[in-house]
Design goal:
Layout (H helix, E strand, L loop, with lengths): L1 H17 L6 E3 L7 H8 L5 E3 L3 H12 L5 H15 L3 E3 L7 H7 L4 E6 L2 H14 L6 H7 L12 H5 L5 H18 L5 E5 L7 H8 L27 H19 L21
Parallel strand pairs: 1-3, 1-4, 2-3, 4-5
């Protein structure tokens, strides 16, 4: 049975490479905003991968951001990568940093931008960094977060104790990624999808990419973590709110106006279940 399944997968790969693209779409929301669920919604009907070639892709992006390679070098690498993977849907949050280059390089490609409110995202990111340290993501984590950690505010002693970065480090990365995507990808080629509404928005997603609605299916996948920590509960409420508004006021205004005047950040335990 195992050999039969392996043979089927090989045949499927060959067939998929022969068949042209029916859609070309990237999901480039920040990590912990539903990128896994988006991939799961497409994988039954389209050539889909969630975060393929992690070390190679991340190294390419970091080299470009650090000006260690030129944009022409990046373009050549992305063309070769595209031919190698031959995907119809790629859900991969680091690609947000080069979404403008992708948009220019592949003019028919469309972009889904999953977005989660900063308070909920921050709790999820803190939990992930506290509990998980995947080897293939260490370079990326070090570059975008650990290397940028300089000091903690007195209110952030709990974060220091847990070995986490400061709120400024996390929130500045979150905001920077979205500003890059929103400024680089033309509005008509991107669709904003709030994390908690992914399944409800599947018909809109299908219409946006020009696919039959039956081909973009409800995902039972949930990347939720169990036994969560709640470090924000131990940090002064006004301090947390000040850091969120310092970095993300424009994002709150555009996508989460209901949180603009939010008081106490809601604990993860109190939030309604969302896919991430």
């Amino acid at each position: 049975m195992i050999l039969q399944k392996a043979a089927y997968r090989r045949l499927a790969r060959v067939t998929n490479r022969i068949r042209g693209r029916r859609i070309h779409c990237y999901c480039v929301g920040a990590a912990k905003t539903g990128t896994t669920s988006i991939a799961a919604s497409f994988e039954s009907h389209y050539r889909t991968m969630h975060e393929p070639e992690v070390p190679k892709t991340n190294r390419l992006i970091i080299d470009y951001l650090e000006h260690d390679i030129s944009e022409s070098d990046l373009r050549r690498a992305l063309i070769a990568r595209d031919k190698r993977l031959n995907l119809e849907m790629e859900s991969n949050h680091p690609l947000g940093y080069i979404s403008g280059v992708l948009a220019d390089l592949f003019p028919d490609a469309l972009f889904l931008v999953t977005v989660r409110d900063p308070y909920s995202w921050l709790e999820s990111r803190l939990n992930f960094h506290y509990k998980k340290d995947p080897l293939q993501w260490r370079e990326y984590r070090h570059y975008f977060w650990i290397s940028r950690q300089t000091e903690y505010a007195p209110e952030e002693e709990e974060l220091r104790r847990l070995g986490l970065c400061s709120l400024d480090v996390y929130l500045s990365q979150y905001a920077d990624q979205y500003r890059r995507v929103l400024s680089a990808v033309p509005p008509e080629r991107r669709l904003i999808v709030r994390t908690g509404q992914i399944n409800d928005q599947l018909p809109s997603i299908a219409a946006f990419i020009g696919a039959p609605s039956s081909n973009v299916v409800t995902s039972a996948h949930s990347n939720q973590q169990k036994e969560k920590i709640a470090p924000l509960d131990k940090i002064n409420v006004d301090f947390v709110r000040s850091r969120v508004h310092e970095h993300c006021s424009d994002i709150l205004s555009e996508f989460f106006p209901e949180h603009r005047n939010r008081g106490r950040p809601m604990s993860v335990k109190m939030q309604s279940r969302v896919c991430d």
